[in-house]
Structures are given as C-alpha cells and as structure tokens.
Design goal:
With 445 residues, the protein is an all-alpha fold. It contains 19 helices and no strands. Helix 5 packs antiparallel against helix 10, helix 9 crosses helix 15 and helix 11 packs antiparallel against helix 18.
Length: 445
C-alpha cells in the first residue's frame, strides 16, 4: 500500500504542470462549449436552416485548415507559452465583441461567422504550440494517459455544457453564458501566465530557418513517412463523414417529430457521459499490441452503429443508444492515434508535422459541414417532402421535417463503413507496427 501511495505521489509530481494546464484549459473549454451550444440553438431558431448553422463551424475551421501549414513552422520558432497566451487573449476579445453586440441587440449571424473565423485563426497558431508544450511537460510513459485525460475533459464538457447552458439560458439569458465563458478564460489565462513554466529549447529560439523551408521540412517528413501520411488521409476521410453528421445532427434533433432543444441537450449529455466512460477506460487500459488495429476497429464500430440508429430510429431513446454505441470507442481510438503521433514524430519536428497534419486531416471538416448543410436543406429534406405517405422512403425514415436528415444518416453510415474497410487494407498503415514503440512502462513493445 505504501508503495502504491508513493507511486501515485511520484506520478502526480511528474505530471503536476501538465495537470494544472489541462484542468484550467478544460475549465476554459467548458465556458467556450457552453457559448458554442447556445449559439447553435440561437442560430437555428433564427433561421431554421441546417446550412446557416453549419456555416458557423465552416467559418471557424476554414482559416484553421488554410493556414495551419504555416502556423506550425512559426510555432516551432516562437515561445510556446507566449504564443498560447496571445492566442487566448485575442479569442477572448472576440467573445467580448459578441457580448457587446448582443447587449446592443445588434448581433447578426454574419457577425458570428466573422468572429468564428478570428477564433479559428487563433486556434490555428495555438494548437501546434500546445501539442509541443504537452510533449515537453510530460515524460514519454504518460502519453497514453494524456489522450485519456483529454477525452475525459472533453466528455465532461459535453455532459455539462448543454445542461448548464440550457439552465443559464433559461434563467439569465445569453449574456450570462458569455460572462461565464469570459470568467473561465480568466482562470486559465492567469494559471498559464503565472503558475506554469513550459521549457523552451535553445535551438528553437535561435533558429534562423526560413518559414517556407520549415514548412517544406514538415511536408517532406510526411512524404518519407508513408504510414503517418496514410493515417492522416484515413482520418481526413473519417472527418468528412463525421462533419456531415455534425451538420445534420442538430437539424434532426431540433426539427424531427419527438425532437426538441431538450432532446438535443440530452443527446449531447449522453454522448458526453459515454466519452467520459471511454476516456476512463482509455486512461487505464494497457497499451495494445497493435495500435493500428485498435484505431481501425474503433472507427468501424462507431460508423456502423450510431448512424443507422439515427436513420431508422423514431424515438429519442433509440437516438441516445446510438450516441452511446457510436462514441464509446472514440476515446480509445484517439489515445492510440495520439500515442502513434508522439512516438513516431521527433519532438523538434512536431510543430511543423502537426501543422501539416492539421491542414490535411482537417480540411475535410469545413467541406463536410457545408456539404451536410446543403444536403439536408437542398436535397434530402425536399426529397422526403415530395414522397407519398406510403412510399418506401417514408416507411424507412418517417415523414415531416427531419426525415431528410435521417435519410442522410443512412447514406453516411455506408460511406463511413466503406472508408474504414478501405484503409484497413492499406499496407502503409500496418508498416507503423513494424517500428518499435514504447508502452506505458517505458519498455519497447
């Protein structure tokens, strides 16, 4: 027992700066998630359009995708702590701007698109800096625990944000949600500024490498490492399917017979609880013999369950079960993906490689959101509205608004399964298994 307590204490000592950073950033993330959830509900009630709501995410991801390839090269040169603080500050200023417009009753949807674009730009620069900071704050043996802890905080936020945001919206309005967001930002900012020291490497600070040359090195690494490159392509294809899902999900939950803002909130809470359970499992599970197999199997399970239950289910209970089955394997997939990237990409190259990865892996997200919105509003909803009461499509997917989104879920279910099966037979992915990796005990596996 003494040894166990001693080991726990040593672990906390070794992880203390990361845990401090993680917990305060997670708290800030809760505030941001509450604001995002409230804005989705607000925008859909304003326009009743899946496309208009999806464009909120498109405007956020577009600069992230377009500029990530350069941001990582810059991040490798800049002080990581200052970069994160500066980006957080600008993002907070956009929230203040939104609050002022809201109080003046002048907030419009196009304002949110513009503010989201600025936030996306800040996230573009901050994300590779945060990835490298995490690597520097942690010993290698804790990499898988990091993935689990991240999903723990994300899932906890998914549980709490719709519940708290709905309650605060009903009691005190949108302004109170935004005020909480700013308070949580302040806690995270002050903690990072005064309580956390992120080691800076001398060679990074004095680097005279030109920006384009640095970017080319990141691209060149992926050209050489085919396994990592094809893994990124796999995730890019999955992200396309997943973002179409994300665009259609609130439209169906808010408009289909049996759906409402309350049902959407419960569905998000169920997904959050599921990810919480999955993240706890991922944090403690032993490193697998084949991380690639885990990634492929987890994504196949996710794609082949939730989408079908959303498509054919007619009650919230069935949709909630779909959310559980679709999201329970995702934390385990993510922790193994994160471990592969950290173990295979040299730390001095991580900022550059992660930035190129972000452009390649996430460029399909704004595309998917846009496609999802267009497909719901202009293709599947009109198609279902034109069906006779006894048609096969009505029997399968129901009638009324939201039935078109259900039809779309059936289509993307087959698309997601196809992507998983295709990349499961990609031998470049399995080459990653031939490289000796490190398990949680520090021994080569």
């Amino acid at each position: 027992m003494k040894n166990y307590i001693k080991n726990c204490f040593n672990t906390l000592q070794e992880m203390k700066f990361f845990l401090l950073l993680w917990s305060t950033q997670a708290f800030s993330g809760l505030g941001s998630a509450m604001t995002s959830y409230a804005l989705v509900v607000w925008s859909y009630t304003q326009q009743g359009s899946a496309l208009m709501t999806a464009l909120l995410m498109v405007s956020s991801y577009a600069p992230y995708v377009l500029l990530s390839i350069f941001a990582g090269a810059l991040s490798d040169r800049w002080n990581k702590k200052i970069t994160m603080l500066a980006c957080d500050t600008v993002a907070a200023l956009t929230t203040v701007t939104m609050l002022l417009l809201l109080r003046a009753d002048a907030l419009r949807l196009w304002h949110l698109y513009l503010l989201n674009a600025v936030n996306g730009l800040m996230n573009t620069v901050q994300q590779p800096a945060a990835e490298v900071a995490t690597t520097r704050l942690l010993p290698e043996k804790y990499y898988q625990k990091v993935g689990g802890l991240r999903y723990f905080s994300n899932s906890l936020n998914s549980i709490l944000s719709p519940v708290i945001a709905t309650a605060v919206l009903g009691i005190a309005g949108m302004e109170a949600v935004v005020a909480f967001d700013l308070f949580s930002f302040g806690v995270a900012f002050l903690t990072l500024a005064f309580a956390i020291r992120i080691p800076e490497k001398k060679e990074t600070a004095k680097s005279g490498e030109k920006l384009l040359s640095s970017v080319k090195k990141g691209i060149g690494y992926l050209k050489q490492e085919k396994g990592i490159f094809h893994l990124i392509l796999f995730l890019a294809a999955i992200n396309l399917v997943a973002s179409i899902y994300d665009a259609a999900f609130p439209a169906m939950m808010l408009s289909r017979n049996g759906g409402s803002a309350r049902v959407l909130g419960i569905a998000n809470a169920v997904i959050g609880i599921t990810m919480l359970a999955g993240s706890i499992l991922a944090s403690f599970i032993k490193a697998p013999k084949s991380r690639v197999r885990v990634i492929c199997n987890c994504l196949l399970l996710s794609m082949s369950t939730e989408n079908f239950l959303l498509a054919f289910g007619r009650t919230p209970l069935v949709w909630y079960i779909g959310g559980f089955l679709g999201w329970i394997p995702i934390p385990l997939m993510s922790t193994n993906l994160d471990a592969i990237m950290r173990l295979h990409v040299p730390e001095p190259m991580q900022g550059r490689v992660y930035s190129v990865r972000n452009s390649l892996q996430y460029f399909t997200i704004p595309l998917g959101y846009f496609l999802g919105g267009v497909l719901v509003d202009a293709v599947f909803e009109p198609l279902m509205a034109a069906q006779d009461a006894g048609s096969i499509l009505v029997k399968l997917f129901g009638s009324g608004k939201g039935s078109g989104a259900a039809f779309l879920f059936c289509v993307i279910a087959f698309a997601g399964i196809g992507v998983c099966l295709y990349f499961r037979h990609d031998w470049h992915l399995w080459e990653l298994e031939n490289i000796k990796m490190t398990d949680l005990s520090g021994k080569e596996a």
